[in-house]
Design brief:
It is built from one helix and four strands; from the N terminus they run βββαβ. The chain is of the alpha+beta class. It has a single domain, classed as 2-Layer Sandwich (Alpha-Beta Plaits). A four-stranded antiparallel sheet has the order 2-3-1-4, covered by helices on one side. A hairpin with a 7-residue loop joins strand 2 and strand 3. It is globular, with a radius of gyration of 15 Å. It starts with 13 loop residues before the first strand and ends in a 9-residue tail after the last strand.
């Protein structure tokens, strides 16, 4: 079993899940790079919004994170779900 570290390039598309504290309307989807937005509020807790979607690269991810910051939302976590293979990659 190969346990060598895997290189994770920053310039490839990948899917992400971002969680923020607060209720974010689905109408922000277009402003946030067309991410799917869901909001929930567990009993006796503050609301949490989850954004899920594909980013073309980490620069696009940074743009979404900056927008969330500008909206005054507290970032809870960012999770890279999967990388999408590059079309010109000989070893997908």
């Amino acid at each position: 079993m190969d346990r060598s570290p895997q290189y994770l390039p920053f310039d490839l598309p990948a899917s992400y899940r971002i969680r923020v504290q607060g209720r974010l309307s689905a109408s922000y989807s277009v402003r946030l790079d067309v991410m799917v937005i869901t909001a929930r509020q567990p009993a006796s807790q503050l609301p949490v919004s989850t954004l899920t979607g594909e980013m073309r690269d980490q620069a696009a991810l940074l743009g979404v994170l900056n927008t969330l910051f500008d909206l005054g939302l507290t970032l809870l976590n960012v999770e890279r779900l999967s990388a999408l293979p590059r079309a010109d990659d000989p070893n997908p």
